[in-house]
Design a protein that fits this description.
about 280 residues; alpha/beta; Glucose Oxidase, domain 1; 11-stranded mixed sheet; two-stranded antiparallel ribbon; 6 helices; about 15% helix; about 30% strand; globular
Length: about 280
Protein backbone atom coordinates (compact mmCIF):
# COMPACT_ATOMS: atom_id res chain seq x y z
CA UNK A 1 0.00 0.00 0.00
CA UNK A 2 0.96 3.65 -0.08
CA UNK A 3 1.41 5.32 3.28
CA UNK A 4 -0.90 8.22 4.12
CA UNK A 5 -0.50 11.06 1.57
CA UNK A 6 0.15 9.14 -0.91
CA UNK A 7 -1.41 -19.59 -15.21
CA UNK A 8 -3.85 -19.65 -17.79
CA UNK A 9 -0.77 -21.25 -19.28
CA UNK A 10 0.66 -22.05 -15.90
CA UNK A 11 -2.15 -24.37 -14.80
CA UNK A 12 -1.93 -26.51 -17.92
CA UNK A 13 1.85 -26.72 -18.16
CA UNK A 14 2.88 -27.29 -14.55
CA UNK A 15 3.09 -30.96 -13.62
CA UNK A 16 3.28 -32.30 -10.11
CA UNK A 17 5.38 -35.46 -9.72
CA UNK A 18 6.21 -37.20 -6.50
CA UNK A 19 9.58 -38.89 -6.22
CA UNK A 20 11.56 -39.67 -3.05
CA UNK A 21 9.16 -37.55 -1.05
CA UNK A 22 9.68 -34.46 -3.24
CA UNK A 23 7.29 -32.68 -5.55
CA UNK A 24 8.57 -31.57 -8.94
CA UNK A 25 7.00 -28.54 -10.55
CA UNK A 26 7.70 -27.72 -14.19
CA UNK A 27 7.87 -23.95 -14.54
CA UNK A 28 5.53 -22.32 -17.01
CA UNK A 29 6.70 -22.69 -20.58
CA UNK A 30 6.44 -19.91 -23.13
CA UNK A 31 3.45 -20.01 -25.48
CA UNK A 32 3.94 -21.95 -28.70
CA UNK A 33 5.95 -19.91 -31.19
CA UNK A 34 7.21 -17.44 -28.59
CA UNK A 35 10.92 -16.82 -28.29
CA UNK A 36 12.45 -18.85 -25.48
CA UNK A 37 13.71 -16.69 -22.64
CA UNK A 38 16.79 -17.37 -20.48
CA UNK A 39 16.25 -19.31 -17.26
CA UNK A 40 13.01 -20.89 -18.51
CA UNK A 41 12.15 -24.53 -19.17
CA UNK A 42 13.66 -25.64 -15.86
CA UNK A 43 12.29 -27.91 -13.19
CA UNK A 44 12.20 -27.16 -9.52
CA UNK A 45 12.00 -29.81 -6.80
CA UNK A 46 10.84 -28.83 -3.36
CA UNK A 47 10.16 -30.53 -0.08
CA UNK A 48 9.17 -27.59 2.12
CA UNK A 49 6.70 -24.74 1.81
CA UNK A 50 7.02 -21.48 3.77
CA UNK A 51 3.93 -19.31 4.15
CA UNK A 52 4.90 -15.68 3.51
CA UNK A 53 1.44 -14.39 4.46
CA UNK A 54 0.31 -12.65 7.63
CA UNK A 55 -3.11 -13.63 8.96
CA UNK A 56 -5.49 -10.81 8.09
CA UNK A 57 -7.97 -9.53 10.63
CA UNK A 58 -9.49 -6.29 11.94
CA UNK A 59 -6.42 -5.54 14.07
CA UNK A 60 -3.85 -5.72 11.29
CA UNK A 61 -1.84 -2.43 11.39
CA UNK A 62 -3.19 0.07 8.90
CA UNK A 63 -3.12 3.88 8.92
CA UNK A 64 -6.82 4.17 8.02
CA UNK A 65 -9.53 3.22 10.50
CA UNK A 66 -12.03 0.42 9.79
CA UNK A 67 -9.94 -0.99 6.92
CA UNK A 68 -11.04 -4.58 7.51
CA UNK A 69 -14.11 -6.29 8.95
CA UNK A 70 -16.08 -9.51 8.63
CA UNK A 71 -19.87 -9.46 8.65
CA UNK A 72 -21.55 -12.78 9.44
CA UNK A 73 -24.53 -13.09 7.13
CA UNK A 74 -25.32 -16.76 7.71
CA UNK A 75 -24.69 -18.95 10.78
CA UNK A 76 -25.07 -22.68 11.34
CA UNK A 77 -27.08 -24.42 12.69
CA UNK A 78 -29.72 -21.72 12.44
CA UNK A 79 -28.88 -21.46 8.74
CA UNK A 80 -27.55 -24.13 6.43
CA UNK A 81 -24.12 -22.43 6.03
CA UNK A 82 -21.54 -20.33 7.82
CA UNK A 83 -20.94 -17.35 5.51
CA UNK A 84 -19.16 -14.02 6.01
CA UNK A 85 -19.17 -10.87 3.93
CA UNK A 86 -15.75 -9.19 3.76
CA UNK A 87 -15.16 -5.45 3.85
CA UNK A 88 -11.56 -4.41 3.35
CA UNK A 89 -9.16 -1.88 1.88
CA UNK A 90 -7.32 -3.31 -1.15
CA UNK A 91 -3.92 -2.56 0.37
CA UNK A 92 -4.24 -4.03 3.84
CA UNK A 93 -2.35 -7.08 5.07
CA UNK A 94 0.00 -9.12 2.93
CA UNK A 95 -0.99 -7.87 -0.49
CA UNK A 96 0.00 -7.12 -4.06
CA UNK A 97 0.27 -3.65 -5.57
CA UNK A 98 -0.82 -4.00 -9.18
CA UNK A 99 0.75 -1.61 -11.72
CA UNK A 100 -2.60 0.21 -11.96
CA UNK A 101 -2.18 1.36 -8.34
CA UNK A 102 0.21 4.11 -9.52
CA UNK A 103 0.00 3.98 -13.33
CA UNK A 104 -2.19 3.11 -16.29
CA UNK A 105 -0.73 -0.41 -16.32
CA UNK A 106 -2.30 -3.77 -15.53
CA UNK A 107 -5.01 -4.13 -12.93
CA UNK A 108 -4.59 -7.11 -10.59
CA UNK A 109 -6.74 -9.38 -12.73
CA UNK A 110 -4.68 -8.64 -15.86
CA UNK A 111 -1.28 -9.63 -14.48
CA UNK A 112 -0.32 -12.73 -16.51
CA UNK A 113 -0.30 -15.89 -14.40
CA UNK A 114 3.20 -16.81 -15.57
CA UNK A 115 4.43 -13.54 -14.02
CA UNK A 116 3.17 -14.55 -10.58
CA UNK A 117 5.68 -17.40 -10.16
CA UNK A 118 9.45 -17.03 -10.09
CA UNK A 119 12.74 -17.54 -8.25
CA UNK A 120 13.27 -15.48 -5.11
CA UNK A 121 16.30 -13.34 -4.42
CA UNK A 122 16.17 -12.39 -0.74
CA UNK A 123 18.29 -9.37 0.19
CA UNK A 124 18.89 -9.29 3.95
CA UNK A 125 19.30 -5.80 5.48
CA UNK A 126 18.22 -6.75 9.01
CA UNK A 127 21.44 -5.65 10.68
CA UNK A 128 21.27 -2.20 9.11
CA UNK A 129 17.52 -1.82 9.69
CA UNK A 130 17.90 -2.69 13.38
CA UNK A 131 19.90 0.49 13.86
CA UNK A 132 18.16 2.68 11.29
CA UNK A 133 14.42 2.57 10.74
CA UNK A 134 14.89 4.56 7.51
CA UNK A 135 17.32 2.02 6.01
CA UNK A 136 17.08 1.47 2.26
CA UNK A 137 17.93 -1.43 -0.02
CA UNK A 138 20.46 0.12 -2.40
CA UNK A 139 22.23 -0.84 -5.63
CA UNK A 140 25.25 -1.75 -3.47
CA UNK A 141 23.12 -4.36 -1.68
CA UNK A 142 22.13 -5.85 -5.04
CA UNK A 143 25.75 -5.95 -6.23
CA UNK A 144 26.86 -7.59 -2.98
CA UNK A 145 24.14 -10.24 -3.38
CA UNK A 146 25.23 -10.94 -6.95
CA UNK A 147 28.89 -11.31 -5.95
CA UNK A 148 27.84 -14.14 -3.64
CA UNK A 149 25.06 -15.78 -5.64
CA UNK A 150 25.52 -14.77 -9.27
CA UNK A 151 23.34 -12.51 -11.42
CA UNK A 152 19.72 -12.09 -10.35
CA UNK A 153 17.95 -14.57 -12.65
CA UNK A 154 15.44 -13.59 -15.30
CA UNK A 155 11.88 -13.73 -14.00
CA UNK A 156 12.98 -13.28 -10.38
CA UNK A 157 11.22 -11.59 -7.50
CA UNK A 158 13.58 -9.51 -5.35
CA UNK A 159 12.57 -9.36 -1.69
CA UNK A 160 13.88 -7.01 0.99
CA UNK A 161 14.18 -8.75 4.36
CA UNK A 162 14.38 -6.09 7.09
CA UNK A 163 12.92 -8.14 9.96
CA UNK A 164 9.96 -5.75 10.16
CA UNK A 165 7.41 -8.58 10.12
CA UNK A 166 8.27 -9.28 13.77
CA UNK A 167 6.67 -5.91 14.67
CA UNK A 168 3.28 -6.62 13.13
CA UNK A 169 1.47 -6.98 16.48
CA UNK A 170 2.38 -3.44 17.55
CA UNK A 171 1.13 -0.78 15.14
CA UNK A 172 3.41 1.98 16.46
CA UNK A 173 6.49 -0.21 16.05
CA UNK A 174 5.32 -1.54 12.69
CA UNK A 175 4.84 2.00 11.38
CA UNK A 176 7.97 3.25 13.16
CA UNK A 177 6.04 6.27 14.42
CA UNK A 178 8.01 9.21 15.75
CA UNK A 179 6.81 11.79 18.29
CA UNK A 180 5.05 13.76 15.54
CA UNK A 181 3.31 10.71 14.12
CA UNK A 182 5.68 10.33 11.16
CA UNK A 183 6.46 6.92 9.66
CA UNK A 184 9.92 5.36 9.67
CA UNK A 185 10.20 1.98 7.95
CA UNK A 186 12.84 0.48 5.63
CA UNK A 187 12.21 0.32 1.90
CA UNK A 188 13.78 0.14 -1.53
CA UNK A 189 15.93 3.00 -2.83
CA UNK A 190 14.63 4.22 -6.19
CA UNK A 191 18.06 3.63 -7.81
CA UNK A 192 17.86 -0.03 -6.79
CA UNK A 193 14.53 -0.57 -8.54
CA UNK A 194 15.76 1.38 -11.56
CA UNK A 195 18.65 -1.07 -11.79
CA UNK A 196 16.29 -4.05 -11.47
CA UNK A 197 14.00 -2.69 -14.19
CA UNK A 198 16.71 -1.60 -16.62
CA UNK A 199 19.51 -4.13 -16.06
CA UNK A 200 17.74 -7.28 -14.82
CA UNK A 201 14.57 -9.03 -16.03
CA UNK A 202 12.83 -8.92 -12.63
CA UNK A 203 9.05 -9.40 -12.53
CA UNK A 204 8.31 -8.13 -9.03
CA UNK A 205 9.69 -6.80 -5.76
CA UNK A 206 8.63 -7.53 -2.19
CA UNK A 207 9.08 -6.05 1.27
CA UNK A 208 8.21 -7.08 4.81
CA UNK A 209 7.21 -3.48 5.61
CA UNK A 210 4.05 -1.49 4.91
CA UNK A 211 5.48 0.17 1.79
CA UNK A 212 7.88 -0.44 -1.10
CA UNK A 213 9.21 3.05 -0.35
CA UNK A 214 10.87 3.98 2.93
CA UNK A 215 8.29 5.22 5.41
CA UNK A 216 9.71 8.73 5.55
CA UNK A 217 9.20 9.35 1.84
CA UNK A 218 7.05 12.22 0.69
CA UNK A 219 6.68 11.47 -3.01
CA UNK A 220 6.77 7.63 -3.21
CA UNK A 221 9.33 7.45 -6.04
CA UNK A 222 9.67 3.66 -5.87
CA UNK A 223 5.92 3.11 -6.24
CA UNK A 224 5.64 5.47 -9.17
CA UNK A 225 8.72 4.26 -11.01
CA UNK A 226 8.31 0.51 -10.44
CA UNK A 227 4.57 0.23 -10.98
CA UNK A 228 4.99 2.60 -13.91
CA UNK A 229 7.09 -0.10 -15.58
CA UNK A 230 3.98 -2.34 -15.49
CA UNK A 231 5.58 -4.41 -12.73
CA UNK A 232 4.05 -5.39 -9.40
CA UNK A 233 5.09 -5.22 -5.75
CA UNK A 234 4.30 -7.13 -2.56
CA UNK A 235 4.00 -5.48 0.85
CA UNK A 236 3.69 -6.76 4.43
CA UNK A 237 5.36 -10.04 3.51
CA UNK A 238 5.96 -12.48 6.40
CA UNK A 239 8.73 -14.95 7.22
CA UNK A 240 11.37 -13.82 4.71
CA UNK A 241 13.96 -14.53 7.40
CA UNK A 242 13.16 -18.26 7.06
CA UNK A 243 14.34 -18.30 3.46
CA UNK A 244 17.83 -18.68 1.98
CA UNK A 245 19.22 -15.79 -0.09
CA UNK A 246 18.63 -17.85 -3.24
CA UNK A 247 17.13 -21.19 -4.21
CA UNK A 248 13.47 -20.68 -3.28
CA UNK A 249 10.55 -20.08 -5.62
CA UNK A 250 7.57 -17.84 -4.89
CA UNK A 251 3.96 -18.42 -5.88
CA UNK A 252 1.77 -15.31 -5.64
CA UNK A 253 -1.94 -15.97 -5.17
CA UNK A 254 -3.02 -12.55 -6.39
CA UNK A 255 -6.74 -11.66 -6.47
CA UNK A 256 -8.38 -11.88 -9.88
CA UNK A 257 -10.86 -9.08 -9.35
CA UNK A 258 -11.74 -6.90 -12.33
CA UNK A 259 -10.25 -3.43 -12.02
CA UNK A 260 -8.47 -4.10 -8.71
CA UNK A 261 -5.47 -1.90 -7.87
CA UNK A 262 -4.18 -4.73 -5.70
CA UNK A 263 -5.48 -6.88 -2.90
CA UNK A 264 -4.70 -9.31 -0.08
CA UNK A 265 -2.75 -12.27 -1.47
CA UNK A 266 -1.56 -15.67 -0.27
CA UNK A 267 2.19 -15.99 -0.83
CA UNK A 268 4.00 -19.31 -0.75
CA UNK A 269 7.74 -19.95 -0.96
CA UNK A 270 8.79 -23.37 -2.21
CA UNK A 271 12.11 -24.50 -0.76
CA UNK A 272 14.32 -26.70 -2.83
CA UNK A 273 16.98 -26.93 -5.50
CA UNK A 274 16.74 -26.03 -9.14
CA UNK A 275 17.19 -28.88 -11.59
CA UNK A 276 18.14 -28.25 -15.20
Amino acid sequence: MCLPACVAQLASRRSFLRKAGAVTVATAAAPLGAQKQPEQAKRFSFQRTVDLTHTLGPHFPFPVDHAFSLERISTRPKDMWNINRWHFHEHIGTHIDAPFHCSDGDTADRIPAEKLVGPLAVIDIRDRAAGNSDAELTPDDLKAWERRHGPIPAGAVVAMCSGWDARVNDANQFFGRDARGGFHTPGFHVEAVQFLAQERSVIGIATDTISLDPGNTGSFPVHHFWLGQNKWGLENVANLGQLPPSGAMIVVGAPKVAGATGGPSRLLALMGEEQK
